[in-house]
Amino acid sequence: MTQISFDVEKIRKDFPVFSRELPDGRPLVYLDSGNSSQKPTQVIETMRDHFALHYSNVGRAMHVLGAESTDAYEGARDRVAAFVGAPSRDEVIFTKNASEALNLIAYAFGNPINTDPRFTLGPGDEIVISEMEHHSNIVPWQLLAQRTGATLKWFGVTDEGRLDYDPSVITERTKIVSIAHQSNVLGTVNPVAEVARRAHEVGALIMLDASQSVPHHPVNVAELGADFVAFTGHKMVGPSGIGVLWGKAELLDAMPPFLGGGEMIEAVWMDHSTYAPVPHKFEAGTPPIVEAIGLGAAVDYLTEVGMEAIEAHERTLTAYALDALREVPTLRFIGPDSLEQRGGTVSFALEGIHPHDVGQILDDQFGVAVRVGHHCARPLHLRFGIPATTRASFYLYNTTGEIDALVRGLHHVQKVFA
Amino acid sequence: MIGESMYQELILEHYKHPQGRGLREPYDAEVHHVNPTCGDEITLRVKVGDGGKVLDVSYDGQGCSISQAAASVLHELATGSTVEETLSVVDEFTRLMQGRGQVEADEEVLGDAVAFAGVAKFPARVKCALLSWMAYKDAVVRSAR
User: Fold this and answer.
1) pLDDT of B34-81, one tens digit each?
2) How far is CA B131 from CA A5, B4, B138, in A?
3) ipTM score here?
4) CATH 1.10.630.10 describes domain A8-30+306-416
5) Is B39–A364 a contact, with Cβ atoms under 8 angstroms apart?
6) Whole-model pTM?
């Protein structure tokens, strides 16, 4: 077996935030990367450098700065395309976040100006999601169902926190299936290839919310079997304000524009317009230029560390956390308690203690930042009969020592509420 | 430390042993309030008698220690008092909670509710403390209709 070397202390030095202390001299223990990740110097400096020396609008300015900005922006697209194995760079569309990418696809369906039969949607047609989705992969589809009269259906979730995959939920009337690659609460990695095969069998398209997988695992969109994939920059050591939609070129070409505006057109008359080819057809207006360039730098950083190495490190942390948390009295995992098909997101409930109290004490007294609440997945919490959970989520810069701090904090929380 | 000052013994006591919890008959008005950011919720009933005397404040809900303890303290303060008196306590409590920790609490008016002073320093938790108190204010207004 090859030992993958992973120097977490060296990695932590790349992230300036870890050199600070919290008020009262508490150390920062950041276990909230599933919410948003911290940023390395490489990303911060790339963005600062671009703002300071190369900034201009992209794609239209006929001068040196315009050319430099355009090169950097389009260069970021190349990097992102390579990072996720996109067959073509033109299949990578920059959005402001994963939510916008999901909405963009939802608006392609049942749209009167889209006559491609794969995108027509009306009463009797079906949209399939799952009970473990983030609100951003639920609400756009609810709105689509309301606009078109289509039926919204979903896969359930098992007691263990796995997708309760029943192929018969997808029928001949299903037009689109949209599920998470990895759950933002449970950590569960879904059998997306299997679901994609079933969707394609009935002629449906499939979209994946990969916001929680692309930052943490090597992901190759061509191998996933999906038609559309959404993810976001701020969870993968990049800035906020930049997200990505990947889609098969042939489908993107068949779709109508989402937002109208500058840069997405070919020619405009007073009564009609023709549109630019992808990706620009879907990038109306001045894009988040420096954010895209920052995402390019983030992708370079992750590539240099190595996604296999990051995945292995997080697996070690997750194994350690599951073992350590299991020892905390009355703690109940919400999600798989084994390493099988799961990522580094661990949610749990403590008997009789509300997660907001858990989070407050962890933060105030131990500097441990976790997320508490329903994590934008309220239906999933309803399914487990609880209003909220405490969630620790790990990334490349976390250590087993930080998990020890979490466990110490939880013991203290139990003492306060004993 | 900061956390210790927020989780006063009195708050923890009320959380562990809530006073007057449970919905009771008779009542003049029932309201249901939620805090959408954290999912805390409360159903609250008031029964007002002659001379504006608050005969009962009954409630049921779920949420963090702050929101649940605040409901318990509210029950103790309001029951047996008059609507007019309690509304001035609600106003003082609201002023304290929205004071970002800069407002001096009037213990004369607030009684046990003064224990929540530490919560005011945490903007994210202020709504937890106010949930049941706002519900009470709403219920009292409705009961007068």
Assistant:
1) 988 777 899 999 999 999 999 999 999 999 999 999 999 999 999 999
2) 51, 22, 11
3) 0.86
4) no
5) no
6) 0.93
